Amino acid sequence: MGFHLPLYFLFLFLLCPILQAAEFQEPTCGKEVCGNITIPSPFGIHSRCYTHPSFSVTCNQTLNGAKPFINVNGIDLEVLGKAIFSNAILISYPVTYSTNCDRINEAIGCGNWATILRSEADSLGGCSQPRCDDVASESGCFTEITANLTSYTVKMRAMYPDSKGCASAFIFSKYSFRDAYPLPSGINNGTTHVPAVLNWNSSYCGEGGCVSINFYKVESCGNVTFNYPFRVKGQDDPKDWFKVICDKTTNGKKGPFLNISGTNLKILAFDFFDGTVTINHPITYFNCRKNHHNGMSLNLTGTPFYYSDSYNKFWSSGCGNMVTVFNKTYNLIGGCLQPSCRINNETSSTDGCLINIPQGLRSFYVNMSNSDYRRKRSCGFASMISYNYDLKFDISNRAYVPTRLQWGTPIFGVCHLNDSSDTYCTSDGQYCWSKLSYKHLCVCYSNDFGDSSSCQDEKCENYKYCRMLCLHTPSNYCSSKSCPPRYEFNSTGDRCEPKIQTQNKRSLTSIIVGCSTGIGTLFLLLATWSMYKVFKRKQKIMLKQKYFKRNGGLLLQQHLSSNEGNVEKIKLFTSKEMEKATNHYNENRILGQGGQGTVYKGMLIDGSIVAIKKSKMVEGKKFDEKKVEQFINEVIILSQINHRNVVKLLGCCLEAEVPLLVYEFIPNGTLYDLIHNQNEELPLTWEMRLRIAIEIANALFYLHSAASAPIYHRDIKSSNILLDDKYRAKVSDFGSSKSVALEQTHLTTRVQGTFGYMDPEYFRSSQFTEKSDVYSFGVVLIELLTGQKPISAEQSEPVRSLVSYFLDSMQENSLFNILDLMVVKDGPEQEIIVVALLAKRCLNLNGKKRPTMKQVAMELELIKASGGNIIEDHGDEEYEIDDIIHSWESNPSSSMPRTITSNSETFPLNSSF
């Protein structure tokens, strides 16, 4: 620590000049660079260079240097550059489908039929690959995709049963590969990504939703044309100030209107370059022919408009009148005196008088008084009028006059169009403009205004005049000095000019170069360490992917995507989640251990408690990949089991070396512990034993007949019966992990099951049936009756097997001598006898003569309901008691003979016994 800490602070100290230098350098949008890729507009790395988070680019360090990425629905896609057409970007897209690609020299595939679908029933196209006689080919096939495609799936099937070639499918950009051939070259089984093109749509979004906008289109209504930012039939939004309403006028023809402060004002002209719109403005003051206007103008406060001081004049007509104009706070703006009426002996004058208009005026009030009290008051008129309006004719009979409203402030200075996709032009070629910031535009006009200094040679191309325009919004104030970023106001020339790098910045650049040289060695060491960490992280990810594929993860994902049989109930946990849940498989979390593996108590991220079963690997044994499909099918079937007396499988983790199964947590241990480790605080009463037996029987009946597919447990025993918080039985441990991975140890046989509970008929036929589970249940039933273990080495040799001990007692009418004292004390005699007879039937050596679990469950329910008063007569049933006794009296160790001979049949045993 004493060495690393000073080195760390030294690195931070040397890094400070670099960070300071970065603050002085604003990014050039549309020209940002990450690695060797120039980021096209409207995408950007800096937040100022993109207008929506979807266009945000992150520059990440990879093993191959810095690479730009965009995030699409949580997936990072590498940016390869600008596409050859507008509104598109070239990205590195992952291969969509790949199968049977384990050989090195295989390519696109052959002998397959590929289909691309929008949904399972909506096919978008497909193609057939030529047959390759089981030799991989790169000829492949391709199909065109439809426009505006946002998602798809791919299905591929072999057209010839003997075809074994590698097959892959992907979307790719045909412009990124050789021109002489329509399919990409150089594709093999190691290819994970191919170049593809993403398009985006330009749109305008308001509170009512989004509508597509073509910024190149010139819209018109009547004889007036419009372009950005005005829209004809735009969003129905009261805050959309630039919406043009195309409606009928008084003469029946259509004309454009602008709604301001609840008044529809007819639009007479639109000028993009000047940032103005000319409207029919109501006459502010009028006192002629018994008509009178009160002198109050429109109120433009809160809108992006104000009265243009450059293109309007305040005009009044009449004679002998004193005209005064006030702003909205009634402060005097100006005034003028009209000529006396006695000069020309007239009651009105068209000469009028003129008042200057201040910048940014949004409302005003006009007052007019007669200065000559000896004569009658003349006809008076006063209003804001556009400079272009001809006042040589009588306007006393007009209600409206043309007035220009400013929606953008022209800013004088040199600017040029950006060479990027954020430059727009009108369809008639009259205007082009680029965004300099969110509120500044560089607008170029095709006509020549005679100011050549406003152009930057080739940057203007065919556009003779360019200048900046500051857009108005209710919250944004623009003035002629409001310069865009990277510009500054020059008071001498009264214009905005690009900023010039100062000497301090040039000196700072020299400091950066010196510091960079000084920390070169340190950076190399850090880079090497970072690459090592990245390599180890990537190696760990690849190992997880290897385990996931080997454990059948791809097959399970295929079932999940196809949504077969409610497979969505299965949750795939990551190995990181499992490590966190078990505190890295801490020994304190172990619930139990056995030949199949270890069960841990875990807590998931959401706080739920689960049981996590981790199988054991046997030394020297390889993972049996042939049984992967069988394991996945069993997991799918078990996940669909939904019974209150069956432990629920919640999900699995396939990223570990061996699969992990996640079950619901059952808190009160096993039935084995309850029977053989009884305590006075919780006596195991007869009622409890009978209820538990009924619950186990109902669970097995459900598995055998009520589940979606018949399931045989294969390992019914008291230690596999768990007890919940109310001591209700839950059948657990279906042994699905055994079918994939692991050879079993001394507690279990090599075949499925546990010694002492296994069906003797299984040794003869090597076939496991539902009656085998019935036999194991019978052993659990007599375990409940007697309180003894199925196999006990502590007793004398003749009674090693509980089954033979029980059957002998039944035959000798000494059943009550072997029963648990609690059973004798607490249980009704008739109920005990009936349950014992049922257990005897379950242990019949002939599986066909055993009852089904349905019959067992019904009889136990009947016993509970009737109190043992109904006893069926099974005396006529042939029963080979001697066979069972002799079969269990033999030594079950590895030295026992391979066959056991009875009076009637010979039963082969597995070599492991």
From TrEMBL:
Keywords of this entry: ATP-binding, Disulfide bond, Glycoprotein, Kinase, Membrane, Nucleotide-binding, Phosphoprotein, Serine/threonine-protein kinase, Signal, Transferase, Transmembrane, Transmembrane helix
Any one GO cellular component localisation term in the record: plasma membrane
Reaction(s) catalysed (UniProt annotation): L-seryl-[protein] + ATP = O-phospho-L-seryl-[protein] + ADP + H(+); L-threonyl-[protein] + ATP = O-phospho-L-threonyl-[protein] + ADP + H(+)
Biological process according to GO: cell surface receptor signaling pathway
Localization per Swiss-Prot or TrEMBL: Membrane
Signal peptide residues on this chain, from the entry's feature table: 1-21
One Pfam family per UniProt: GUB_WAK_bind
Bilayer topology: Single-pass type I membrane protein
Annotated Protein kinase domain residues: 585-863
Classification via SMART domains: S_TKc
Molecular function GO labels: ATP binding; polysaccharide binding; protein serine/threonine kinase activity
InterPro entries: Kinase-like_dom_sf, Prot_kinase_dom, Ser/Thr_kinase_AS, WAK-like, WAK_GUB
PANTHER family hit by this protein: WALL-ASSOCIATED RECEPTOR KINASE-LIKE 21, WALL-ASSOCIATED RECEPTOR KINASE-LIKE 6
The protein's name in its UniProt record: Protein kinase domain-containing protein
